[in-house]
């Protein structure tokens, strides 16, 4: 077969000829590096292998690359899947634009964060009074996370009033409360059932777990002196008050809702599409609506 026609044969594939010279080259380089810390003889052996493998590898690609012809058995392969096919009900083109159709205004999350932040100071102040007989201990302990000079401060020092500590605590606590309040305003519409339970228990416990795992890196002084029972109580107080304030406000329509056809927005037509009559599905749908 002529070389020009070999490439036209559909039953033959031309591949580069196999060669062991790249492995020999890698071994030679390894021996050169090993000879730098062992013996010069090992390095010379590695240099010899590098020169031999380089020459041998170049001879296989220059002046013409060597190939070998591999016969190919062309046959049709039928792909059979063992997966179970599921029937999908027809839906409208806008079914992915429906959620969320309502959410809270950004001001609602700010109000909830402020209210939750104020409520959170009550358990913190109560902890300071009962344990250290001072209302300033919790605020100074929070501020100590931002002051390197307060890392080794005593309990007596943290129980005293410090203006810079109070201002730092207000800034840290205020910014954190606002950010978490915005988070509450964004996620509460996702929990239409029992949102206060989610806001007052689930999120505070999740946040406490995250703080427990990273507090040793973020603030070692807080990690060694924090009382986790009172910390959880403070988080729960924040979650209950913030969730209650946020949930009391009216929701606003999202762009996803405004993008729906007028008939769906007016409640004239449904967006679920036509579904076959199925008694089991109809019963489940009625239970969901209840």
Automatic annotation (TrEMBL):
Region of interest (Disordered), residue spans: 270-290
Coiled-coil segments on the chain, per record: none
Origin superkingdom: Bacteria
Transmembrane segments: 20-50, 135-153, 165-187, 199-222, 228-246
Keywords associated with the record: Membrane, Transmembrane, Transmembrane helix
Protein name: Cytochrome c oxidase polypeptide IV
Highest classification ranks of the organism: Bacteria, Pseudomonadati, Acidobacteriota, Terriglobia, Terriglobales
């Amino acid at each position: 077969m002529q070389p020009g026609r070999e490439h036209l044969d559909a039953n033959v594939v031309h591949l580069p000829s196999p060669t062991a010279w790249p492995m020999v080259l890698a071994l030679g380089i390894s021996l050169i590096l090993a000879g730098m810390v062992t013996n010069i003889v090992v390095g010379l052996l590695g240099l010899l292998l590098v020169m031999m493998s380089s020459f041998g590898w170049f001879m296989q690609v220059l002046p013409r690359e060597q190939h070998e012809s591999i016969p190919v058995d062309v046959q049709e392969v039928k792909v059979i899947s063992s997966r179970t096919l599921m029937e999908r009900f027809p839906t409208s083109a806008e079914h992915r634009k429906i959620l969320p159709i309502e959410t809270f205004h950004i001001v609602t999350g700010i109000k909830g964060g402020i209210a939750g932040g104020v409520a959170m100071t009550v358990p913190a102040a109560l902890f300071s009074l009962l344990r250290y007989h001072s209302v300033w201990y919790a605020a100074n302990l929070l501020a100590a996370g931002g002051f390197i000079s307060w890392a080794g401060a005593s309990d007596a020092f943290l129980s005293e009033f410090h203006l810079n500590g109070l201002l730092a605590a207000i800034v840290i606590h205020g910014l954190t409360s606002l950010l978490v309040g915005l988070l509450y305003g964004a996620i509460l519409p996702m929990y239409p059932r029992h949102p206060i339970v989610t806001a007052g228990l689930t999120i505070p416990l999740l946040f406490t777990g995250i703080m427990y795992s990273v507090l040793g890196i973020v603030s070692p002084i807080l990690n060694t002196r924090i009382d986790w029972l009172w910390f959880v109580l403070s988080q729960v107080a924040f979650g209950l008050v913030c969730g209650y304030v946020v949930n009391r406000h009216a929701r606003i329509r999202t762009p996803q809702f405004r993008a729906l056809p007028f008939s769906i927005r007016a409640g004239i037509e449904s967006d679920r599409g036509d579904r076959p009559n199925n008694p089991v599905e109809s019963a489940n749908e009625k239970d969901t609506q209840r």
